[in-house]
Design brief:
The protein is mostly beta strands and 207 residues long. Helices cover 10% and strands 37% of the residues. It starts with a helix and ends with a strand.
Length: 207
Amino acid sequence: MYTKHRTAALIATLLTTLAVSAAPANAAPAGTTAGPVTTAVVVGGGAAPTTNSSVRVAAPEVGPGAQEARTICLNAHLADVGWQGWACGADGTMALVGTTGQHRRIEALAVSSSGTGGICAQAHVGDVGWLDQICVPDGGTATVGSTGLHLQLEAVGIGAPLATTCGRGHVEDFGWQVVRCAPPGSVALMGTAGQNRRMEALNASVS
């Protein structure tokens, strides 16, 4: 009976932590938690390394007209490569990062947006579990995962307060998953948790 109640409480907590809320006008600096967003519980035992707070990457340069379009930009930190570089997609166009066919893990992911009311991201990391959800306003950078620890990114949740978010992951021994979408205020989940499968590539869009 104790185990059943504990499991139910954990599921409720995880569902709460995956909710997206808009970043307020006095949002925290890029890369830190903004707004009244609760933090995730680390699943799988052990204390989480301070990966989110130690990873920093600058926001992408955004060209003229970007404020009118709903845009998402991604940057992946890859094993034995480092930061790959920004890839952006506007108004439903997918941004793609990572690699396929190279058996190379994504270790961290940086997400930036415009025209979406901000962006939230959360990562499930191998040997650690779910890390804190990071939310930033438009133009900020939400960076999740780790660098320098050789830990694989296994799942990612991305969502925006004012845009529909879609995405899919390329997962070890599986390949491309089906596209998953979430309405404004919700999180689209990609990858796997509890299967010890590295995420190798990811694409996402906002509309």
